[in-house]
Hints:
The chain is an all-alpha fold. The protein has helices spanning 3-16, 18-24, 29-51, 55-70, 78-90, 95-108, 116-137, 143-163, 165-170, 178-183, 188-193, 199-219, 231-250, 264-283, 299-306, 317-331, 334-339.
Amino acid sequence: MRPDDLDWCRAAIREGSYSFHAASRLLPADVRDPALALYAFCRVADDEVDFGTDKASAVLALRDRLDLAYAGRPRNAPADRAFAGLIEEFGMPRELPEALLEGLAWDGMERRYVTLSELRSYSARVASAVGAMMCVLMRVRDPRALARACDLGVAMQLTNITRDVGEDARAGRLYLPTDWLDEAGVDIDAFLANPQPTPEIRRIVRRLLAEADRLYHRSEAGIKGLPVAARPGIFAARYCYDAIGRQLARNGHDSVTRRAFTTRRHKIGLLGLSVIRAGMVTVFPQNPVIFARPLPEVAFLVEAASHPDTTKTGWGENVITLLSQLEAQKRGDHGLARTA
């Protein structure tokens, strides 16, 4: 990976993801640089789908970018060149970024999620896939450690969702489980038209944060399976994201009219705590939670990362179907897109 490309990736993460940038400072250099390249590529892709005016085109362009990167002919852009470099250096299983693309395709189609399981499936693709790729960068292929890394990815994404309820609603997006909204008597169309931090919405935010908290605690069991030098950085990611949820709780679970964030001073304190916790993990016996089965929604990621199949060179059937629907949507064949 070229030094100037890595400089661009560092700058992109510094501006776009304060929590990850802070946590990355505790990673060893041989993990930190490829991790920044990975996050920069994923962040650019996510922003293009979230904030672009043509979501279908953004997802299809990402498909083409991944094809070029895996062919060793990346698009002439810093994030793409750096991502192609880490594919070659670490033997990144293609199913992992392909899962991320599938999640972004769901975003492009403005999919909603009826149950918590469906929301975890989405989180697996847009967040746990990145956690599994981080394990690959650390040369970790143990399925137990991978399962706990995927727990952390789901927890972080659920935290993001709870933090952004108001912002998403004002943009016409909805990630809260719709069966929870139905149970609470929330009219979804009315909420999107005029988002308000009603008691019902606050209770749903609290409930989703409780699920994230459960997974944050499960994830810690896998940190002992990581290289010693990388453990403080992963703890830092866990604590920096969890701190957002805790601030949201202090705000009365109102993420509609208020924005939860952590201060620079708070982050510095969390980095110190992460170093201490990493040392404790090194000394204490293995947490038995390491043997817990992976969430059903992330099991395919654990399999892909722990048993990479070098014969797989193209898109999976599910992704091909989704991309066909997006291409139909882009052409304006909305009926085909709905029934495909």
